[in-house]
Structures are given as C-alpha cells and as structure tokens.
Design goal:
The chain has 348 residues and is of the alpha/beta class. 32% of the residues lie in helices and 24% in strands. It folds into two domains: 108 residues, no CATH class; 221 residues, Nitrilase/N-carbamoyl-D-aminoacid amidohydrolase (4-Layer Sandwich). Helix 3 packs parallel to helix 4. The termini are far apart.
Length: 348
C-alpha cells in the first residue's frame, strides 16, 4: 500500500473538531478554494480510511486452525483495495466449527497464541490495523474479546464484551469492564462493541463521549436497523462484522453506505472522518458563502425534514473544524449542549 504521504499528513491532521485555524487552513484556501479537489499522492484523503469487514457466511471448518486460514483467504481478497483496517466477526475463529470446541482455558491460552500470531503477521504484511476476535484470560476469568492489532503487527489493546448472554455467563465468560476503551489510530479514534452489547446503551454512549469516530461491532448476527439507529443517535460511523446476516457500514446519519450480501462476503469502503454534523438552522445562511469560497473542496448535504446538515472536507489540506471556525458555525452537539445549559440555568 502506498500510504506514506497520506499517513505522514496524519501527524498534523485534526482528530475530531478541536483544532484551530492556522497555517494549514490558510494554505488550504489557496490549494482548495478554487473549486478543484486535490488528494494525496496515493489518491486518498488523509482522514478517509478504507474500512473492511469480513462476513463469516458460508465458512465452516473442522477446527479453529482451519477457520483462521479461511479468514486469511477471505481477507486476501480485500487487500488489493488497500484497507486501513479490517474487522472480523465475534469469536470468528472458534465459530462454525464441525468438531467440538476446546475448553475455555485452551481457547484463551493455546488457541489465542496461535490465532493472534497468524493474524498479527497478516496485519504486518499488509500494513493494516486488524480487529482480532479471541477468548482472553486474566486472573482466572475468561472474556469474549476483540484485540486491536496495529500496522506493525503489534497489539494496541483489547475490548472485552461488556454484556455477555446468560449462556455465555453459564459457560464461564465474564463481563468486561463497564467503560469501553477508545483507541487512537493514525487516521482517528475508534472503539468496539460485541454482539449482545447492542441491547444496552451504556457502552455506545460512553464511546460517543470519549470521541470515537468509528465504532466496530463484531457480532454473531446482523443487527439490521438497530445499527442504523445507533449510528444516527450517536453521530459516529458503525462498522459491523458478522457470523451470519449482513455486515454493513452505517454513516453518521444512520444510512447504510456499504454492505455484504448474497454475492459478496466482505466489504471495503472509504469513510471520510473530516465531516461535521450540524443543526441546519441558523447556519444554512452561510452555506452559500462556503460554497462560493471553497467550491468542490467542501461538500454540504442537508436533510430538510430533520433539519440536519453534513459539511465535509474533500481537500487534504482543509480541516472541517477550520471551516466551521472561519464561518462561526457550531456543531449539532454544541447547539444542543448550549440549549441544555440554558434550560438548566432557568430551572434554577
């Protein structure tokens, strides 16, 4: 993957909407203010990662070693598109097996070591992040986990399923910590949830509060419109990877932008993280000025019935936070937060 220039830019790119207007933004006016849309030498925007998800539909194996090889074969189909990150389904290497599963102790110790080694090697060889589903152990407890591997094949951290099912608990799986971690990558902040976590709002809300821009949901089932709802409510992207059913990418307004299906068992698509979610009124009044100055370098889409607007940078030198600051535009969360504070003040 030719990602050197794009990833080099990431050291100065904004994460979220906290940056200030500086030299980079003033340079963007010259480079991007004429209507032309530029991109890095590899043809990608600096904060537009290509995200891949693998479905386990149609995969059956005798043991976890064979299933791991099957996942690697399916991931190799994705690599020509140069994914920045790949997600695998919940307990994937240990699901859809025709022979009995080993004990939790073996899965968490022996199996974890061999599966993690193979998938770490894959991540290193293909220069991508990878969510690796495993059973992990600590202090005599076992967890249903997602382990994040970086581009060098090193473990970044681990998310442990917060809300296992009764069946999982009975089989020895413990609930994970009540605060899910958020991980900093070279393209933005990401987090994870696993399967039954979809039925509780706590983890999803905490990931939003911590600034997650993409949440990966590794699951045994598809989730359907539940994921679209959660993405729209929390205004972040959700990427699912499933054992059965549809895997999909839901954007920040809750729309499905890519999915697997009968003819495709994986997906790989770009997610531009230089986007802001706005309350249209009263800021729609400034959209004409923005278009006049930046042309195609800034894309604005308004959902008229909902009065939402999405403003998106399509230029590598232009951060959406700088556009908002330049035109004195507040995000949706800022508008709602100010109203909430004022309401509380008036309530005394």
């Amino acid at each position: 993957m030719a990602n050197v220039n794009r990833r080099g830019f990431l050291s100065t790119a904004s994460v979220g909407l906290g940056s200030t207007l500086g030299a980079a933004a003033m340079g963007a006016t010259a480079a991007c203010g004429t209507g032309a849309v530029a991109s890095g030498s590899d043809g990608r925007l600096p904060r537009e990662p290509w995200v891949a998800s693998i479905s386990q539909e149609g995969l059956w194996a005798e043991n976890y070693e064979q299933m791991t090889e099957m996942f690697i074969e399916r991931m190799l189909e994705v690599t020509p598109l140069g994914p920045d990150i790949i997600c695998l389904p919940e307990t994937g290497p240990f699901a859809n097996l025709t022979s009995p599963k080993p004990s939790k102790a073996e899965l968490a110790e022996k199996a974890t070591g061999s599966v993690l080694a193979k998938l770490s090697e894959f991540a290193r060889e293909h220069n991508c992040y990878l969510w690796c589903p495993l059973y992990t152990a600590e202090d005599g407890r076992y967890y249903n986990s997602l382990v994040l591997i970086d581009r060098k094949g090193k473990v970044v951290g681990e998310y442990r399923k917060m809300h296992p099912t009764v069946g999982e608990c009975d089989s020895g799986i413990s609930p994970g910590p009540t605060v899910p971690p958020v991980f900093e990558t070279d393209f933005g902040k990401i987090g994870a949830q696993i399967c039954f976590d979809i039925e509780w709002r706590d983890g999803w809300r905490q990931l939003q509060a911590a600034g997650a821009e993409i949440v990966f949901w590794s699951s045994a089932f598809g989730g359907g419109k539940k994921l679209n709802m959660l993405a729209g409510i929390h205004r972040y992207n959700i990427v699912s990877s499933t054992i059965k059913g549809t895997s999909q990418i839901c954007d920040i307004v809750g729309e499905t932008v890519a999915c697997t299906g009968l003819w495709e068992r994986w997906l790989c698509a770009p997610i531009n993280l230089e986007r802001a979610y706005l309350h249209s009124w009263p800021f729609y009044r400034k959209f004409g000025e923005i278009r006049k100055k930046y042309g195609q370098a800034v894309r604005i889409k308004t959902y008229h019935e909902e009065e939402w607007s999405i403003i998106e940078s399509r230029c590598p030198d232009l951060k959406v936070a700088d556009v908002l600051k330049e035109f004195d535009i507040k995000t949706y969360d800022e508008v709602v937060g100010e109203a909430t504070d004022r309401q509380q003040q008036m309530r005394g």
